[in-house]
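Summary for the funding panel

The consortium committed to producing paired sequence-structure records for every protein in the target list. Below we show the first two records in order, beginning with the earlier of the two.
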Amino acid sequence: MRIAIIGTGYVGLVSGACFSEFGIDVTCIDVDVEKINDLQIGKIPIYEPGLEDLVDKNVSAQRLHFTNNLGEAVSEADAVFIAVGTPSRRGDGHADLSYVFAAAKEIANAMKGYTVVVNKSTVPVGTGREVERIIRSERPDANFDVISNPEFLREGSAIEDFMRPDRVVIGVETERAQELMNDLYRPLHLIQTPILFTKLETAELVKYATNAFLATKITFINEVADLCEKVGANVHDIAKGMGLDGRIGNKFLHAGPGYGGSCFPKDTLAMVRTAESAGVNLKIVEAVVDANNNRKKDMAKRVIKACGGSVAGKTITLLGVTFKPNTDDMRDSPSLDIIPMLNEEGAVIRAYDPAGMDEAKHLLKDVIWCEDTYEALEGADALVIVTEWNEFRSLNFDRIKKILKGSVVVDLRNIYDPKTMTEAGFQYSSIGRPLDGKRFLSRREAE
């Protein structure tokens, strides 16, 4: 079987490499000539653990190819995956589908014989029908099916998620297309992966509903953490108590500075806009979007409060700028709100991130970028942990005390133990955890 994948971004490149590992002949296509040239010589444009080795292995085996020639690749493919970006449309928050529709037109003019057109991009309900209409309008004689096959890849563990997924969702409405997709995912049948076949519209909405629900869990525990700080409870223990309930589960119950990345921010907003167009009010998702936007701004206020109410003229060290560890993705990272706000208040920012600094330099101004953690800490008044990279989990605090001018540590990821940090002489603050475990007095009790 031969497949073509349009788009060599995160989804397209990971999917192409993994399908080729299944033994399928895969050609990844992109209009960016420089990116394709880099991929052909083994230069990977994104940071994802294991991806470089997987690409190199399958290119060497001549199962994975890269090209700018869409016409040739599509004409020889049994299935063509659309894996282009669908960012939030500027001004209204709807998903920008211009790249998807442009790809549909090009596919229409290039395909020969029966072809399955697979929407891998995250798209609103109705997109598949519009792709079908575009292709039919361009090629009334074409023999094809349009299906939806949303991705559920987590950045930082995408290869494992593809190879051993919780499920595969396929929106398909003909037996011929379903049979082809069954063949494509045959290696997953061998490990008894659930394959869910649905209507086209259902598959499109599954992705949005999933991301909105996970974003809601994150936002919920963040708000619970705020309550914990007022009443003296510990959000870690609450999350554990909730997560042991099989109906809830323990994933995505980690309090922090708010969600970011390529999916949750744009997908929750796009879901709200889709619902509005359908005359439905998604109040919960709307509240999640607003609460998360406000939370990232509140993180800068936390730093200012920890520094005594002002950061003017102070040097603040940020460890981690990406939205999560094991990725170089800066999209909607909390650091994009925190750093500018601290700058506006007069702070000098020193920062280090193991993988995200090249991208961050294009997005953040007035930052002193450092080569490692301890260089970033030199002469700083305060340390702020923004991203929980593994190398930040075992810092040498004896060394830090010698090079940190101040003693303020703001841990936005709850990596360290409050009691241990306080006993070590740091003015330590984290998210939703009391320093001594004691219950705070209510206003009535205090009076």
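The next record, for a separate protein in the list, is shown here:
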Amino acid sequence: MIGWWKTWKALEAKGIMGINRRNADYVLKYNKRSLYPIVDDKIITKERAIAAGIHVPEMYGIISTEKEIEKLDDIIGGRSDFVIKPAQGAGGDGILVIADRFEERFRTISGRIISHEEIEHQISSILTGLYSLGGHRDRALIEYRVTPDQIFKSISYEGVPDIRVIVLMGYPVMAMLRLPTRQSGGKANLHQGAIGVGVDLATGLTLRGTWLNNIISKHPDTTNAVDGVQLPNWDGFMKLAAECYELCGLGYIGVDMVLDQDRGPLILELNARPGLNIQIANDCGLTHRTTAVEQRLAELAAQGRHESPEERVKFAQALFGHV
């Protein structure tokens, strides 16, 4: 009992946020339920981002009913690569990434050869709600397949690395690079075996990594170091993340972004209930940072003003940078 108490006090002193505190003090406090559909449905998120002039992977088409599966050929046209996602999916489940064509069939990112009928079956499963939050009927989104920037070639296995930034009331508070592995099947989802690497908010320099809840310094597949990597266009990523507060209206979100080798930073999706493993990757608790933002908001409210996305980024980088 004494040992447990000491551990808990040590975590509290470090500012580690637990799931109960996240839900009670941030998700419930800052996220209106009426706004959840904006982030829980990837199609709605994408449409609002496009309207706001925020860059996202190009949307090729939407399939909403079994009958509309007939439109698949028209949607993909002569493209050799594309991505199919459940609009309301979570954790990367149900996503099908096509990397190339092979005669009359298709090759997935993992190298598996599948038929046109298998793709149709996957879309049908998406429509039934197999991968959706709550099991409700869903829509299938067909979109541009991101080509990762070459900087990730040595520290990622297949798939597309992404950057998760936790944002409180428009202020970035913590960032993490998520790297696919062989175990994760090329997906950047930590619970499937991807690596989480902390990122310094001020500079965009990667810190240490966490894999399956263990601290690591090298990628298990490429054996290259995951720390000390300078992410390009970091200020652009930070500004994108800050702008997502105005985009969705939710006060506590996880912003997932990617770096395409041709199109630069793109918003992938938003999450109203971002996970907490980001604290392990950064060796730092969220609570101290979120408290600092709340104090900043109180000061601004007393002055009767608010800050722009650029000002919010500047504040966060000055206060939360590791270096």
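Regarding this second record: The mean pLDDT is 91. DSSP finds ten helices and 13 strands in the chain.
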